[in-house]
From TrEMBL:
Keywords, sorted A to Z: Flavoprotein, FMN, Oxidoreductase
GO MF: oxidoreductase activity
Cited SUPFAM superfamilies: FMN-dependent nitroreductase-like
Organism: uncultured Aureispira sp
InterPro entries membership: Nitroreductase, Nitroreductase-like, Nitroreductase/BluB
Entry protein name: Nitroreductase family protein
């Protein structure tokens, strides 16, 4: 037995009908989630973003190390710096780093090296992974860092949608410009940049479909 304290945990036992209804309602809500590239400049209360980040931080993590930092950017000057740096990397990607096949696969999504949403959205959330923790006595190891941060990012995106906002999973590569601009400590690495806000009145999304259940699941 562990020497650390444990507390009781329960969940209400629901009827099969209520379980089915809950799962159906949540699925149908999440199925309306779309990646948005056209954001309104309409402000969003800071407390909403705080709640969203707290929700993301409920994600499971290796040894409960919670190896993530969510850097929230609302400063117009900082957003401008990030956009300039991100577009520089994207220009190099589209002009040589990315294969012809990759560019063809992106064509239906309408993406290019121009990223105005990085300035239009009221908030940017940069997700950083902590390769290790820094303490006065030295480095402390984190476990399953990529998996843990991936889970937290999924919670983050779901929380953004549930709150009534939109986001875009932006991953310019390489992303170390974020570490430099935001002056993050040496144990942190940027993995994801999400503009967060309302869609603009002119917002459109690609007419694409998600794969059906039988294509994404195997039952044994």
């Amino acid at each position: 037995m562990s020497s650390h304290p444990f507390i009781s945990h329960t969940r209400p036992i629901l009827s099969d009908a209520q379980l089915l209804e809950n799962s159906k309602v949540f699925y149908e809500e999440m199925d309306t989630r779309r990646t948005v590239r056209h954001f309104s400049t309409q402000p969003v209360p800071k407390a909403v973003i705080e709640n969203i980040i707290q929700t993301a931080s409920t994600a499971p993590s290796g040894a409960h190390k919670q190896p993530w930092t969510f850097a929230v950017i609302s400063s117009p000057e900082m957003k401008r710096k990030i956009r300039i740096a991100a577009e520089k990397e994207e220009q190099e990607n589209y002009q040589g780093r990315m294969s012809d096949e990759w560019i063809r696969d992106l064509e239906p999504l309408g993406t290019d090296e121009n990223k105005p949403f990085l300035e239009d959205a009221p908030y940017l959330i940069a997700v950083f992974k902590k390769a290790y923790n820094i303490h006065p006595e030295g480095k402390q190891k984190n476990y399953y860092v990529n998996e843990s941060v991936g889970l937290a990012a999924g919670f983050l995106i779901a929380a953004i949608h549930q709150a009534g906002l939109c986001s875009l999973t932006h991953t310019p590569s390489p992303m170390n410009f974020l570490e430099k601009i935001l002056e993050r400590p040496k144990n942190e690495r940027a993995v994801l940049l999400l503009p967060v806000g309302y869609p603009s009145e002119e917002a459109v999304v690609p007419d694409i479909q998600r794969r059906p259940l039988e294509d994404v699941s195997v039952w044994y």
